[in-house]
Amino acid sequence: MDNLTREQRHKNMKAIQSKDTSIEIKLRKALWKEGLRYRKNYAGLPGKPDIVFTKYKVAVFCDSDFWHGFDWENRQHAIKSNHEYWIPKIKRNIARDREVECLLKEMGWEVIRFWEWQIRKEIDACVSKIQRIILEKKIDGNV
Fold this sequence. Notes:
Strand content: 5-15%
Mean pLDDT: 87
Largest sheet: 4 strands, mixed
CATH topology: Endonuclease, Chain A
Shape: elongated
Low-confidence stretches: none
Strand order of the largest sheet: 1-2-3-4
CATH superfamily: VSR Endonuclease
């Protein structure tokens, strides 16, 4: 059972950001520092990727561990309150992420997804992966 009133829960949920989250900002700052320029929250593509390198057709998503279902098989059992709502909600998010990824790949885009924990704890590895993929695209002449 939820320990907040309906109005309190509504206020909390309304405050959750869909763009410019702390993990997006952290990754964008790290990319900018490396001289990589990008577009953010690109509405011209399915799923509105968080970071897009249009020239190289690379779309990057910064996925929250909770909202996008990191380690879902194990973590779904830890949801104690309102699990009748949250479990289907997160399952829909996971399915939508897969659909968007397939659409983008069909359109010839490289899709990179980073979990929240990766951005928080392994930011250098995230930046390196993006740099490597962009370099590969430059070398292959896919630009």
